[in-house]
Amino acid sequence: MKYFTRHMVMPINLNSSQSLCCGQLLSWVNEEASIFASCQMRSQFHIAKVISEINFMAPAYVGDIIEFGFELVSLGQSSVTVRCKIRNKVNHAPIAFIDKMVFVNINENGLPIPHGMRANAA
Questions:
Q1: What is the DSSP string of 22-62?
Q2: Mean pLDDT per 10-residue run, the chain (122 residues)?
Q3: Which residues does 15 contact at the CB level (< 8 Å), separation at least 6?
Q4: Residue range 26-43, pLDDT digits in tens
């Protein structure tokens, strides 16, 4: 797994328990995963089709820098499936894990179209 991006947890990102709000984390994951999928498919027109359950393992607090790791799991004709791990940058403690995120390449009408990648090209 390669870790591509980082975010610093700021006070505005906290929930009532003074830890990183899951909604904020999911917003960051969606953005970062979408960029990763875009790079894999070499396409800017795609949508998130499936996001599997998210396993939260540890909280993040103000000042923590968290890293987002992504890896390509599989290729469909018009889709890519990626896995995501979020960890603390300093101690590498896992924060959350998403086993399956599927992104679908689409045309201007929102219909799936082949992305043109081959399994051995991944």
A1: HHHHHHHHHHHHHHHHHHHHT-S-EEEEEE--EEE-S---T
A2: 94 96 95 93 89 96 98 93 97 97 94 80 46
A3: 21, 22
A4: 999 999 999 999 998 888
Instruction: Point out which residues pair with 29 in neighbouring strands.
Output: none
Structure tokens at 35: 């960029």
Any idea how long the chain is? 122
DSSP letter for 106, please.
B
In this prediction the pTM is 0.88
Stated as kind and residue range, the H or E segment containing 74 is: strand 65-75
Determine the Cα–Cα distance for residues 98 and 55; give it in Å rounded to an integer.
Answer: 7
Which tokens is 114 given? 């082949």
CA 105 to chain centre: 16
| Helix, strand, coil percentages, rounded to 5, for the chain | 20, 45, 35
Query: CB under 8 Å to 99, separation ≥6 — which residues?
Result: 52, 53, 55, 83
